[in-house]
Design a protein that fits this description.
- The protein is 32% helix and 22% strand.
- With 180 residues, it is of the alpha+beta class.
- α2 runs parallel beside α4.
- The radius of gyration is 16 Å and the shape is globular.
- The protein starts with a helix and ends with a helix.
Length: 180
């Protein structure tokens, strides 16, 4: 994960207009963007348990590893943008999007949990939590689907990755090739 962050920084993908002081890694550029660095996550195991209780579903093991490892901002891959986890309110962002937004869109009752957005902010990437996968030694995982809020019935909630671990594998492969 550290190597991937370093690679993203080297191609200018770790910039944001608002950065908590402890995450700033350099001066603001001419466009008002501030370089940021990932730091140790302040999200605790107790907070993860609280979030899982609020959702009514356990979270994928690799997702829990990701959110409890580093605080990050504006991580994007292909057409996907992860929920920002700034050091000063990462847990609040998770609760707001994973619980509150999933509830307000009626997704939790369908077994869907938002964890990322499309780059155009018109769709959401969700865990299909009502269809759990169990991987050897990796723990719980879920298929990843794309939800379009204009399709209220979610008939076209198309699966875009077989699993969250598959999404992360694709991200790392793309970064290793120099893309993103």
């Amino acid at each position: 994960m550290d190597l991937t962050h370093n690679q993203l920084a080297s191609v200018g993908l770790m910039l944001s207009p608002v950065v908590p002081a402890d995450m700033v890694s350099g001066p603001e550029d001419d466009d008002g963007m501030i370089p940021w660095k990932p730091i140790a996550s302040k999200i605790t195991g107790e907070q993860v348990a609280e979030l899982e209780k609020a959702l009514g579903y356990a979270l994928p093991a690799l997702f829990v590893d990701l959110i409890t490892y580093k605080s990050t901002l504006s991580l994007e891959y292909d057409q996907l943008r992860f929920i920002p986890l700034p050091s000063d309110n990462g847990f609040f962002n998770l609760m707001q999007w994973m619980r509150d937004q999933s509830l307000s869109l009626g997704l939790l009752e369908k077994g869907l949990i938002i964890f990322a957005f499309s780059r155009d902010d018109e769709s959401y990437y969700c865990f299909r939590a009502n269809n759990p996968l169990f991987k050897d030694q990796a723990g719980l995982d879920y298929p990843v689907v794309l939800f379009d809020p204009t399709d209220e019935s979610c008939k076209d909630c198309g699966q875009v990755y077989d699993s969250f671990s598959g999404l992360l594998d694709a991200l790392v492969r793309e970064v290793d090739k120099g893309g993103v």
